[in-house]
Amino acid sequence: MMFRQKITRRLLGVMGIAVLLIGLSAWKLDYFEINKQLDIFTNLFREVNLYYVDETEPDALMEDAINDMLKELDPYTVYIPEDDVENFRIQQTGQYGGIGSTIRTIGDYVAIDQPYKGYAADKAGLKSGDLIISVDGKSMKGATPSDMSNLLKGSPGSVVKLEIERYGERQMVELKREEIQVKSVPYYGMIDDVTGYVVLRSFTDKASPEIKAAITDLKRNHGMKSLVLDLRGNPGGLLSEAINVANLFIPKNTEVVSTRGRLPELDQVYRTLNDPFDTEMPLTVLIDRGSASASEIVAGTIQDLDRGIVIGQRSFGKGLVQQSRPLSYGAQVKITIAKYYTPSGRCIQAINYAERNEDGSVARIPDSLRTAFETANGRTVLDGGGIDPDVAVDPDKVSGVLYSLVVKGLLFEYATKYVQSHPQLPSPSEFALTKGEYDDFLHFLSDKEYHYVTETEKVIERLEKAAEREGYNEALNSEIASLKAAYEDRKEDDIEVYKTQIRQLLEREIIGRYYYEEGEIEFMLRNDPEIEEALMVLRDRAKYDQLLSPQN
């Protein structure tokens, strides 16, 4: 391993970024220098692999060198080996051949996390919590989710045999793989008499048709007169679909985004190409820290054109554009080729990867260095830090105890246990755990390990180390011990203190077993601060108009 790391560092120095730029365009490059460095690298790589004292792994060395080189650029410029190209395609289309289920690790095995409604796993009766013991007769003990995913995927129509364990009993299940199309819109519906709600999870090539179908149904058949578009947690996807989604709400031939890069031919202005669905309907867009890339293009365009109100938390801040380029032997490279700019002219990229600290780290652009731009109505918006919402809603902070329960899989495990004794469940809009059922959950936790470290614990630990380092430990020992004791007493109460938060997520986990992802979303609508804020804004037209007007 040490040998590989040393060689990798040397290869980085030799290769630079020149290899990736060859063939991009007729841009003036120092081809002599590029060819010189490639020749040196080729000779070095051959000599090392021929003469090094121990046997080498040329493919592993090369992949390490490439990946470490690209890390020096940005997180989005990545090498895609031939084996991973199919997974990359799935991310863009949401389409693949398989059984139709998410998976997760439980103990020594991979388990079914949640089947997709109506697909092979669901039709075969697989349930959340089922352990996959073997695939086609091969034991899966110790397999990773990645290993399992590769085994479960395959050509539509092909057969896979699973041995699964449920509640201690094992059985064989034969499934016929299908073409799986993961929905970009997992849920839509009405949240009051006149307000529609649409969730967009990702910008695959089906995103805009699915949204258009949803809002058409809501308007024609359910009386929708205003809309909440939920982009929270949406990591982005295809630029073309971001433009098409924005096009649903803004006129044809309107600028949505422009891109500017090192190569002039990559500078482009992207405009809407189609007639819109509705340019007048009141619109709110929900974002959070997980809304990135294409999500930020849509939210930023709606904001810059004063077409609607953006609600939630500041978005992620990814203003970089990637392009996939083919390489030899079926591999690909995804390269950051430009930055994108919303209609006001701002770039929302929050991190400058070209400027690094001495330790190699990069920092977010401070607010003091963000530049002001103006929306169509003259409102001030800032660049360099994601999309700032027009109406900010502070997110609920996830408690340490809840985080631990989720990571340890204890909510998932209890939900599996709950389903065993509850064949039916009330609708997502009505279901709630009884006091007795929640007490049963607490009893279930009584012999489980879910240790977690809080910020307070970290501060106490730093205090203890500082006291020891500076010679105050003897004088402060009793005070620190008292502080620890008081804290431990308080920490034991966390299950009760954060009961509402824990209970809500447990109920959501249980609902998913009966009503799939749609049911989980419907349940969470019952207590959603951003939804409540959106409804308040949409119901008050004066407030809506005021938010879209310049602030004096």
3D architecture notes:
By secondary structure, the protein is α+β, with helices and mostly antiparallel strands. Strands 3, 4, 5, 6, 7 and 8 form a six-stranded antiparallel β-sheet that branches. The protein has a six-stranded mixed β-sheet with strand order 10-11-12-15-16-21, sandwiched between helices. Strands 1, 13, 14, 17 and 18 form a five-stranded antiparallel β-sheet that branches. Strand 11, helix 8 and strand 12 form a beta-alpha-beta unit. The radius of gyration is 27 Å and the shape is globular.
Summarize the structure.
This protein is an alpha+beta fold and 552 residues long. The protein is built from 19 helices and 21 strands.
Cα-atom radius of gyration: 27 Å
Annotation, overall tally of beta strands:
21
Fraction in beta strands? 15-25%
Query: For the report, how would you describe the main beta sheet?
Result: 6 strands, antiparallel
